[in-house]
């Protein structure tokens, strides 16, 4: 069974480490803020100028002026800092973000990512994604494995305009966790109840299945 958005966020949260500065892109990545392990000190960064995002607010906590880069209302943790977007991008471009979590339309076997434009459709645009993929070494892409029409999003070569080239090494989909190495997707984990055959069928790019693939647990 495919992972829910919340389960995808939970799985990504396992990649967090104490003391990390982390940037969460719009969409599924923002949900990771709700699953930071208890007792772990992680500072979530937003390119609009907030370091120290907390979980999404309850109805009583909503502050319309406290938003993330996707215009969603957020909370701030103790010790948070608010600054200009120019300073925020200096932090990103300077390589001071330890982990970046991004959504995407497509990823390919060369580690290319397309996440900002679909010709003929209205999307939110590039935002800070180009800076994030250029300034971060540790990036996780989280996305559905295939489109609603069943077309694979894990490709031999991206068909949409690129956000960044050769920058992606880790992909978490609703079906699997994969790493990108030597021009192939390496299957590392399957979603609970999802077969390797289904993953292979929905992966258009070259797929390698090692002997030690494990099933995710929640």
TrEMBL record:
The UniProt keywords, alphabetically, are: Transferase
Q: In which pathway does it act?
A: Aromatic compound metabolism; beta-ketoadipate pathway; acetyl-CoA and succinyl-CoA from 3-oxoadipate: step 1/2
UniProt EC number: 2.8.3.6
Q: Which Gene3D superfamilies match?
A: Glutaconate Coenzyme A-transferase (3.40.1080.10)
User: Does the keyword Transferase belong to this entry?
Assistant: yes
Q: Tell whether Calcium is among the UniProt keywords.
A: no
Q: Which domain of life, per UniProt?
A: Bacteria
Provide an example Pfam family for this protein.
Answer: CoA_trans
The catalytic activity, as recorded, is: 3-oxoadipate + succinyl-CoA = 3-oxoadipyl-CoA + succinate
One MF annotation (Gene Ontology) recorded for this entry: transferase activity
The record, for PANTHER family, names:
KETOACID-COENZYME A TRANSFERASE, SUCCINYL-COA:3-KETOACID COENZYME A TRANSFERASE SUBUNIT B-RELATED
User: Which family does the similarity line name?
Assistant: Belongs to the 3-oxoacid CoA-transferase subunit B family.
Name-wise, this protein is: 3-oxoadipate CoA-transferase
Species of provenance: Metapseudomonas resinovorans (Pseudomonas resinovorans)
Source organism phylogeny = Bacteria, Pseudomonadati, Pseudomonadota, Gammaproteobacteria, Pseudomonadales
